[in-house]
Amino acid sequence: MSTFKAPKGTYDLLPPDSAVYLAVREAISAPLRRAGYGYAETPGFENVELFSRGVGESTDIVTKEMYTLTTKGGDELALRPEGTASVLRAALEANLHKAGNLPVKLWYSGSYYRYERPQAGRYRHFSQVGAEAIGAEDPALDAELIILAVDAYRSLGLRNFRLLLNSLGDQECRPVYRAALQEFLRGLDLDEDTRRRIEINPLRVLDDKREAVQKQLTGAPMMRDHLCASCTAYHEQVRELLTAAGVVFEDDTKLVRGLDYYTRTTFEFVHDGLGSQSAVGGGGRYDGLSEMIGGPSLPSVGWALGVDRTVLALRAEGVELALPAATQVYAVPLGEEARRVLFGVVTELRRAGVAADFSYGGRGLKGAMKSANRSRARIALVAGERDLAEGVIQLKDLGSGEQRAVPAGEITAAVRAALG
Ligand code: AMP
User: Fold this and answer.
1) In terms of residue numbers, what domain contains 150?
2) Most buried one in 88, 148, 232, 248, CB count within 10 A?
3) How far is the CA of 149 from the centre of ligand 1 (A)?
4) Same domain for 313 and 374
5) In this model, does residue 258 exceed pLDDT 80?
6) Rounded CA gap, 382 and 39, in Å?
7) Contact at 8 Å (CB) between 308 and 316?
8) Are 91 and 104 in contact (CB under 8 A)?
9) What is the CATH number of the domain that holds 340?
10) How far, in Å, from the CA of 286 to the mean position of ligand 1?
11) pTM of the complete model beyond 0.70
């Protein structure tokens, strides 16, 4: 134990659990890579205004949860609380949208930071894999992204997740709805904070988790009943494409999500085994975001899936991922000459693509074999002075316990054959 601990609301990823996180990131990104999404990586911090303008001045993320800092040079920066604004900023800066091949499809994976009240499944540093399809307005693109997320969860073996779907309308129908909702909300018995929210972002009042608020929302006007003809047709197409792909969804007219930039399609994946922090991923269409951060009109859609919560969901369902063995072969040298020979064998095996490890520190047979078993290797290679004098290495199958002597020159081939 050192004097220091991981900061509040954060945790470290270490073996053996860290292998599960890697596998989850890999599983979420695999369907994206197969669908033409290219990898993007942006800095961990950005100009603070990118988020205040992009995510929304009135959102919890911007008002309460951002880690902001002033550099020695006087720049106002923020640790990134989410990925979309950064990725869009990067695509615009590099003029990817001008290369004539829209949509620009990008995926990313990384750390995000929000100063939230920590609890199970909610951290101040967490990890997301995300995807953005920039510069096209096509219901098939919304459907594509949702299907890719569903396929990612399914490939991990998750079953108890649900997809909630809604449309938030566009610049034509949303303002009309917003005004109707405001009028309804102003007549309710609400606290000061919530009253202020009615004026700034009334849709988010629908998202209030408090029962006293939810009770009063019965009979509130719903976006669904105010969608314009083009938004209705668009949403209907997304729904049809999802259904044709065998994706089950639930219409959730109250789904607004905590970021201001969403338009039309919005969705969230929830998992029923996670308690109050049940959202494992979410996203939607953000047709106005590019203009909000100073770019041209580029209708886009994207999502971000939480890696931490996906791991928790796997645990809740008791899913054990089939992870590749970290070590297949463990070498146990007995004596100086054996150290030299087996170290060479381990190097050769690794170069041949076999995961091999070595007993360091000149340990005796008993301790070294314990490490071999703990490493869950399938094979141990043991050599002492007598073996070397005979020009052999002992190949021991750690499953069956069977052991045989193999000529030193044939050991790589013998190991590969034994591993199958
Ligand atoms: P959001 O950007 O808020 O839509 O979040 C997308 C996903 O990231 C959520 O569904 C969660 O799985 C995950 N996520 C967001 N905030 C946190 C947090 N504080 N701790 C852990 N995971 C989070």
Assistant:
1) 17-173+227-317
2) 88
3) 15
4) no
5) no
6) 43
7) no
8) yes
9) 3.40.50.800
10) 18
11) yes
